[in-house]
């Protein structure tokens, strides 16, 4: 198997993609939230933390690396390639305005998964050509969780990706218990939710509820 198929083989089908965000976690730490996600059976977890100083991010990521490794959970770090080089997660996730994916590949080597956020058919096609292992698709619905967010794409973009793009897709943006089934219907492979999961009173119960809508 070549490197790309090994990286892409780590990807779960049709499931929840958990993302940390301490500011929306109702007083719980990222570590507590990750624990709850792992206990609920989430198979991919991304560390996304925009406000903290690098030292605290590093310390949290080291712990999350241990927790995810033990549990066999795929661990992705958002944005910080330096952190990824130190912590050695399974992958990194970058946006359109982060470092170019080709340069990130040079830095992280051939084994790490690289996910790229996309917001249009053109960006999705480019992501394939430029070697992304999976793409973020969205924001599907309006959200206030991300500060510099682009306009909502709607479900049509999710459908476009399902029909035309030969990479796993992770839908994101405004996904909640009451609309996740529509995103599944549109053909997304994975479903990334921030506030609906980290802000839930009982994270385990919420994940169960979300999963029940994916079957
Ligand atoms: N990228 C596109 S939308 C978004 C990110 C990180 C935020 C998603 O958060 P929520 O709370 O699930 O709408
Ligand atoms: Mg980014």
UniProtKB/TrEMBL annotation:
<dbReference type="InterPro" id="IPR022998">
    <property type="entry name" value="ThiamineP_synth_TenI"/>
</dbReference>
<protein>
    <recommendedName>
        <fullName>Thiamine-phosphate synthase</fullName>
        <ecNumber>2.5.1.3</ecNumber>
    </recommendedName>
</protein>
<keyword id="KW-0808">Transferase</keyword>
<feature type="binding site">
    <location>
        <position position="146"/>
    </location>
    <ligand>
        <name>4-amino-2-methyl-5-(diphosphooxymethyl)pyrimidine</name>
    </ligand>
</feature>
<feature type="binding site">
    <location>
        <begin position="143"/>
        <end position="145"/>
    </location>
    <ligand>
        <name>2-[(2R,5Z)-2-carboxy-4-methylthiazol-5(2H)-ylidene]ethyl phosphate</name>
    </ligand>
</feature>
<keyword id="KW-0784">Thiamine biosynthesis</keyword>
<feature type="binding site">
    <location>
        <position position="117"/>
    </location>
    <ligand>
        <name>4-amino-2-methyl-5-(diphosphooxymethyl)pyrimidine</name>
    </ligand>
</feature>
<dbReference type="InterPro" id="IPR036206">
    <property type="entry name" value="ThiamineP_synth_sf"/>
</dbReference>
<feature type="binding site">
    <location>
        <position position="174"/>
    </location>
    <ligand>
        <name>2-[(2R,5Z)-2-carboxy-4-methylthiazol-5(2H)-ylidene]ethyl phosphate</name>
    </ligand>
</feature>
<feature type="binding site">
    <location>
        <position position="98"/>
    </location>
    <ligand>
        <name>Mg(2+)</name>
    </ligand>
</feature>
<dbReference type="GO" id="GO:0000287">
    <property type="term" value="F:magnesium ion binding"/>
</dbReference>
<dbReference type="GO" id="GO:0009228">
    <property type="term" value="P:thiamine biosynthetic process"/>
</dbReference>
<feature type="binding site">
    <location>
        <begin position="46"/>
        <end position="50"/>
    </location>
    <ligand>
        <name>4-amino-2-methyl-5-(diphosphooxymethyl)pyrimidine</name>
    </ligand>
</feature>
<dbReference type="GO" id="GO:0009229">
    <property type="term" value="P:thiamine diphosphate biosynthetic process"/>
</dbReference>
<feature type="binding site">
    <location>
        <position position="78"/>
    </location>
    <ligand>
        <name>4-amino-2-methyl-5-(diphosphooxymethyl)pyrimidine</name>
    </ligand>
</feature>
<comment type="similarity">
    <text>Belongs to the thiamine-phosphate synthase family.</text>
</comment>
<keyword id="KW-0479">Metal-binding</keyword>
<feature type="binding site">
    <location>
        <begin position="194"/>
        <end position="195"/>
    </location>
    <ligand>
        <name>2-[(2R,5Z)-2-carboxy-4-methylthiazol-5(2H)-ylidene]ethyl phosphate</name>
    </ligand>
</feature>
<feature type="domain" description="Thiamine phosphate synthase/TenI">
    <location>
        <begin position="16"/>
        <end position="197"/>
    </location>
</feature>
<dbReference type="GO" id="GO:0004789">
    <property type="term" value="F:thiamine-phosphate diphosphorylase activity"/>
</dbReference>
<dbReference type="InterPro" id="IPR034291">
    <property type="entry name" value="TMP_synthase"/>
</dbReference>
<dbReference type="GO" id="GO:0005737">
    <property type="term" value="C:cytoplasm"/>
</dbReference>
<dbReference type="InterPro" id="IPR013785">
    <property type="entry name" value="Aldolase_TIM"/>
</dbReference>
<comment type="pathway">
    <text>Cofactor biosynthesis; thiamine diphosphate biosynthesis; thiamine phosphate from 4-amino-2-methyl-5-diphosphomethylpyrimidine and 4-methyl-5-(2-phosphoethyl)-thiazole: step 1/1.</text>
</comment>
<dbReference type="Pfam" id="PF02581">
    <property type="entry name" value="TMP-TENI"/>
</dbReference>
<feature type="binding site">
    <location>
        <position position="79"/>
    </location>
    <ligand>
        <name>Mg(2+)</name>
    </ligand>
</feature>
<comment type="function">
    <text>Condenses 4-methyl-5-(beta-hydroxyethyl)thiazole monophosphate (THZ-P) and 2-methyl-4-amino-5-hydroxymethyl pyrimidine pyrophosphate (HMP-PP) to form thiamine monophosphate (TMP).</text>
</comment>
<keyword id="KW-0460">Magnesium</keyword>
């Amino acid at each position: 198997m070549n490197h790309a198929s090994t990286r892409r083989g780590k990807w779960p089908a049709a499931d929840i993609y958990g993302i940390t965000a301490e500011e929306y976690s109702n007083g719980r730490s990222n570590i507590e939230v990750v624990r709850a996600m792992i206990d609920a059976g989430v198979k991919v977890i991304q560390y996304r933390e925009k406000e903290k100083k690098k030292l605290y991010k590093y310390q949290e990521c080291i712990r999350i690396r241990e927790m995810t490794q033990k549990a066999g959970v795929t661990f992705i770090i958002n944005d910080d390639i330096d952190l990824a080089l130190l912590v050695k997660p399974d992958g990194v996730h970058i946006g359109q305005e982060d470092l170019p994916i080709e340069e990130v590949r040079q830095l992280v080597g051939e084994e790490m998964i690289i996910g790229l956020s996309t917001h249009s058919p053109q960006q999705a096609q480019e992501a394939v050509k430029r070697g992304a292992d999976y793409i973020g698709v969205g924001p599907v619905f309006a959200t206030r969780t991300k500060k510099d967010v682009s306009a909502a794409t709607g479900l049509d973009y999710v459908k476009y990706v399902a029909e035309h793009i030969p990479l796993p897709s992770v839908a994101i943006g405004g996904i909640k218990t009451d609309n996740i089934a529509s995103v599944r219907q549109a053909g997304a492979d994975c479903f990334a939710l921030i506030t609906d999961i980290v802000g839930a009173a009982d994270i385990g119960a919420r994940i169960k509820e979300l999963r029940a809508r994916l079957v």
